[in-house]
Design brief:
Elements lengths: L4 H12 L6 E6 L5 E8 L2 E8 L6 E4 L12 H10 L3 E6 L6 E9 L5 E9 L6 E5 L5 E4 L33 H8 L6 H8 L5 H11 L7 H16 L5 E6 L2 E6 L7 H51 L2 H13 L11 E6 L5 E6 L6 H45 L3 H13 L23 E5 L2 E5 L3 H11 L5 E5 L7 E3 L9 H13 L9 E7 L3 E3 L8 E3 L3 E5 L3
Antiparallel strand pairs: 1-2, 2-3, 3-4, 5-6, 6-7, 7-8, 8-9, 10-11, 12-13, 14-15, 15-17, 16-17, 16-18, 18-21, 19-20
Helix pairs in contact: 4-5, 7-9, 8-9
Length: 557
């Protein structure tokens, strides 16, 4: 839901209950779109989040800490200069405009009492945070705008601040007058109100129709009911605004709430969850893009190597050409012969046509074929080794793809990303890395209890490696889907108590669930004791060989 005028009016009402006369103690700028104001009011410390990004534009109290840059940006330093120590004297919004005015009062360096105003414009991609003095002259803003940025206003230092133009109607005007202006529009109630009135969103109107139990048809009666409901809210100083989730969106409802800051608390949780989820998806997709591009390049190399190997497979015929020419030199008398037909004693003496270079002797032609044979034979061993290395690397990268696909948190992705860094597959850490990325020991594996046995499951290669080679004991059972990328699963054996076949089948089902075959049926899962599982020397994390294993086929319920 857009952060509309009704939300802003409710938020401003809540902020007025706790921040008036509060002193500004801290100011941070975690990123180019956010300002955090630390306020000390009535013995309580608050943090006000001002977000002007096009996806999350909003203002609310927050309890979620963010990572701040070691060096404060210029606008943050300017706000600290002007606002630290000042008190909030007023928080307001005009009608349903998506603009919040926070007024501050305090003494400047000359000990003169001054008034400053922080204007928070929350209008999608046009959002901004602007500091003005008592004469409405802009001191500075988080975003500078002028005609070169296709702006209709100049938002620059030393310029007079003007309100943004709005072509929408004010819903507080006379109902009959508004209806006359809109009655000829071919629209429904939801689009009519959201497209023509300032500060009203489609989500709110859609929810309001359910509350009022009316349909979406534009009639005078429906128009009147929606108009009166909204104006009652605006005019009623004792209304209560609370946020409620509606699937992937949210809206505001009006009823009695348990706390004066209910809406703030709701928005803090909602936006924090949304930002984390969007960050996770973007981070995951960026990692997948890097890996898939790497796999694509390796696949092209593999195709070239396969072509070379096909050429090398013809090497044996050049050896035969050389031998036949050498053994029949006495029969080839001319230097200008382009081809000869000789009996191939390797194939029942069938005549074999052999091309010759007429510019050199038959003997040198034979040497040329032997040289080509030796060259292809050497190339075959080199290319075969290169092919094996590339296939191994592609196989490893596919395990990384699986690890990314099963990751649930940013921390999971950080482990995968750091593995790519340590493996030398990614060099530029700044391209897609999460701002909270810290190297991990890869020990946060999953833990289950099956029939009284502890079962551990790795979520990525680093965890698989650590789990199999560091955590598991030689007598524990190790599970993995047969020839399918998946997690290493360890069934811990304590005090010599061996699991039943039923328990083994349950653990095998868990191994199948945490694999790329999780949506298949009749999945083969190998299991063996840890002592029969050996890490492949000089291999990537999680790569093992195992022997003395048994296989069970399972289905995931």
């Amino acid at each position: 839901m857009p952060f509309d005028g009704l939300i802003i009016k409710a938020i401003v009402t809540e902020l007025n209950t706790c921040l008036i006369n509060g002193k500004v103690t801290k100011i941070f700028e975690p990123n180019k779109n956010e300002i955090i104001l630390g306020i000390y009011s009535n013995g309580v410390r608050y943090a006000v989040n001002l977000n002007i990004s096009s996806n999350y534009y909003s203002i609310y109290l927050t309890t979620n800490k963010q990572v701040n840059p070691t060096t404060a940006p210029n606008f943050c330093m300017l706000l600290r200069k002007y606002l630290i120590g000042k008190k909030i004297s007023k928080i307001s919004s005009d009608s349903l405009e998506r603009i919040v005015n926070i007024e501050f009062i305090g003494y400047n360096e000359l000990n003169d009492l001054t008034t400053l105003k922080l204007i928070v414009e929350l209008m999608g991609k046009h959002s901004n945070v602007i500091l003005v003095n008592e004469k409405n002259i802009i001191i500075d803003s988080l975003r500078h705008l002028d005609s070169s940025t296709n702006s209709t206003r100049d938002i620059l230092p030393a310029h007079y601040y003007t309100l943004p133009e709005s072509k929408k109607l004010d819903i507080t005007k006379d109902m009959n007058e508004l209806y006359d202006q809109l009655k000829h529009k071919d629209s429904d109630i939801i689009n009519l109100f959201s497209n023509n009135f300032t500060g009203i969103s489609k989500t709110f109107i859609s929810n309001l129709l359910n509350i009022l139990n009316i349909d979406n048809t534009f009639t005078f009666d429906n128009f009147k009911k929606v108009y009166e409901y909204i104006n009652n809210l605006i005019n009623n100083l004792n209304y209560y605004g609370c946020g409620v989730n509606t699937g992937n969106d949210y809206t505001i409802i009006y009823n009695k709430k348990s706390n004066n800051l209910d809406l703030n608390f709701f928005l803090d949780d909602y936006y924090n969850s949304k930002i984390l989820n969007d960050t996770f998806i973007s981070y995951r997709n960026n990692i997948l893009k890097l890996i898939l591009e790497k796999i694509k390049k390796l696949s092209k190399k593999l195709s070239v190597l396969n072509t070379k190997l096909e050429e090398c497979e013809d090497s044996e015929k050049y050896r035969i050409y050389g031998e036949l020419l050498t053994n029949n030199l006495y029969r080839i008398n001319s230097r200008n012969v382009h081809e000869v037909h000789l009996e191939n004693y390797y194939n029942n003496n069938e005549l074999l046509e052999i091309s010759l270079d007429p510019s050199i002797s038959p003997a040198n032609n034979a040497k040329k074929y032997f040289k080509k044979y030796n060259k292809l034979k050497t190339a075959f061993h080199i290319v075969s080794s290169q092919k094996q290395d590339i296939e191994s690397e592609i196989n490893y990268l596919e395990t990384i793809v699986y690890s990314v696909e099963v990751s649930k948190t940013i921390e999971d992705l950080n482990e995968v990303y750091n593995e790519l860094i340590q493996s030398g597959l990614i060099k530029e850490k700044s391209k897609v890395v999460s701002k909270n990325n810290k190297d991990s020991e890869g020990t946060k594996f999953l833990e289950f209890n099956i029939d009284g046995f502890k079962v551990l499951v790795g979520k990525n290669n680093k965890q698989n490696d650590y789990l199999t080679n560091k955590v598991a004991n030689s007598g524990d059972l190790w599970f993995h889907t047969k020839d399918i990328h998946g997690s290493h699963v360890i069934l811990k054996i304590e005090n010599g108590v061996q699991p039943s076949q039923e328990t083994i089948n349950k653990v095998a089902t868990l191994a199948a669930k945490y694999s790329k075959a999780s949506h298949s049926s009749n999945i083969p899962v190998d299991y063996t004791f840890i002592r029969y599982v050996k890490r492949i020397t000089k291999s990537k994390p999680g790569m093992v060989n195992y022997t003395n294993y048994k296989t069970v086929n399972v289905n995931i319920d």
